[in-house]
């Protein structure tokens, strides 16, 4: 018996779909990895015909790198009962601007809006949950960039 349950497989495939989408979608992402578009699309499908198709580790890493956020990696950690924490970043040349603050605010508002819309009927369905997670992924990416611009010190 496999340790990966249907629930775990679905969560991993959902993270894979989100990462590939954030990496530009299968059509664009295929040009920066070793797997072609059709196969990339299969990695995110949950149907019976695709239940054994999971993204290879190297391609998952490339997807997260292209997405600019550890979407698949974070989900793997969460499924194992862990949480990713960014390593101490090297100080960057770029500095924090008002535009960075506005972007963070807009991304947070997108998360808030998606969650509020999902809760309008007091029930969050699978599609709404996916929409919220997409917005959370974008917020995480913006937050990581924001944090990187802070550099060291405090």
Attribute tags:
globular; 7 helices; 154 residues
Radius of gyration: 17 Å
**Could you spell the SSE succession in H and E letters?**
HHHHHHH
- Largest β sheet strand count, sense and barrel closure: none
The count of domains is: 2
From the spread of the alpha carbons, the general shape counts as globular
Q: What distance lies between the first and last C-alpha atoms, to the nearest angstrom?
A: 50 Å
Number of strands: 0
Helix/strand class: mainly alpha
The percent of residues in helical segments reads 55-70%
Give the strand content.
under 5%
Mean pLDDT: 90
So how many helices? 7
- What low-confidence regions span 5 or more consecutive residues with pLDDT below 50? none
Set out the fold topology.
Layout: H1 6-22, H2 25-29, H3 37-43, H4 57-67, H5 71-79, H6 98-118, H7 126-150
Helix pairs in contact: 1-4, 1-5, 6-7
What does this structure look like?
The chain contains seven helices and no strands. α6 (98-118) packs antiparallel against α7 (126-150). It has 154 residues and is an all-alpha fold. It has two domains: 6-79; 98-150. It is globular. The chain is 62% helix and 0% strand.
Write a compact overview of the structure shown.
The chain is mainly α and 154 residues long. The chain has helices at 6-22, 25-29, 37-43, 57-67, 71-79, 98-118, 126-150.
């Amino acid at each position: 018996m496999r340790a990966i349950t249907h629930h775990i497989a679905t969560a991993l495939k959902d993270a894979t779909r989100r990462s590939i989408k954030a990496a530009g979608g299968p059509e664009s992402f295929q040009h920066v990895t070793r797997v072609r578009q059709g196969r990339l699309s299969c990695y995110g499908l949950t149907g019976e015909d695709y239940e054994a198709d999971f993204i290879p580790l190297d391609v998952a890493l490339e997807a997260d790198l292209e997405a600019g956020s550890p979407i698949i990696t974070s989900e793997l950690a969460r499924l194992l009962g862990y949480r990713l924490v960014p390593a101490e970043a090297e100080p960057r040349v770029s500095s924090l601007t008002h535009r960075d603050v506005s972007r963070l605010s807009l991304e947070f508002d997108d998360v808030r809006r998606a969650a509020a819309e999902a809760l309008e009927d007091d029930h969050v369905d699978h599609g709404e949950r996916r929409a919220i997670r997409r917005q959370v992924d974008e917020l995480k990416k913006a937050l990581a960039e924001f944090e990187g611009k802070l550099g060291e010190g405090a």
